[in-house]
Amino acid sequence: MISFFLSVLLLPASFSRTSSHLLQPILLSQSNGPTLTFPPPHTGIYTSTYNETRDTILSAPFTEDSPANFGGSFYSFSKSRVEDILRATYPNALTLRVRMPISDDLHPRSFVTKITKYEHVVNIPNSNSILHDLLPLAVAMSEHCETGVYNFTNPGAIGHNEVLGLYKEIVDPMFEWKNFTLEEQGEVTVAERSNCELDATKLMGVVERYQCEGVEVKVPEIREAYRGCFERMVRNLQMDGGAPVET
Length: 247
Description:
By secondary structure, the chain is an alpha/beta fold. Helices cover 38% and strands 7% of the residues. The chain is built from eight helices and six strands. Strands 1-2-3-6 form a four-stranded parallel sheet, with helices on both faces. Strands 4-5 form a two-stranded parallel sheet. The longest helix has 19 residues, at 222-240. The chain starts with a strand and ends in a 7-residue tail after the last helix.
């Protein structure tokens, strides 16, 4: 029987958020069967190399075997150490590296909802995870007893301005936003932020294999995925009688 967990392990209230993120995947992986650790660990352990204006990625995307190269916060540092432990000690673990997850609604934890509420946003390309595309794949991978580490993102990278431009085009024509630089962002954030592109080649190999088996999974390139996400978001808002997020 597969132990399928979505980061729901209950820990004492005295545990901090960082402590729970450190312990959850390790404790879950001690179960008898194949275990899915999702979403922690996460992908804030990398930073890509960008051009001077930070709108183009110059370095190759990070694979599942790329060593961590970002330690701008204890949170990120601890995540890379947890993944090292899972790799070395718990072969039953399936680790799905989610990055900047996006839902088809305006849930407050969705990456899109967050950046539409910011007074200023940086414009820098990153890999993103569209949950509508990826959650069915997570279930299929669990059912197939997959193990190991996978970059769990849609293929490609996209900048914040392009995301918000699609949001404005499809969801809220009245939406406006302002940019600031990474240096200006650093003046208002407590710790450095990771920005990176992940290589989805290994994951797409699984998608192709499952499709050949007749499993209904599809993980589009990130721009196509965002367009589909926002079109579904409009329909969801209309059905719920809601409106775009207040800005």
